[in-house]
Amino acid sequence: MAQHEPMKGLGSHNLRGYMSEAELIFTALAKLSTRQIVESVGATWIAENKAAAQTGGRIARQARNQLESQTGKSAGTGDRYLPPATPKAAKAAKAAKAM
Question: What is the pTM of this model?
Fold first, then answer.
């Protein structure tokens, strides 16, 4: 996730709010795959959970790579980036947060 924040032009913002539909789907696939693997093997230790997470991520990566090879387009894009805040917008956001 850390490498995607600069690509989207984000600082401390929630990355998922700025993901494309494909990015959200592949992230959800990785999470679902990992959770189901953990449940099926009964992982309880950190090493077991780490292995399940790596396998879940691999499943999502393979799906993403296959889609990208079929469409010729990257699933990860710089689209939906957060534009730099203008001083006026930053002041309004700060005031809204204070309420």
Answer: 0.63
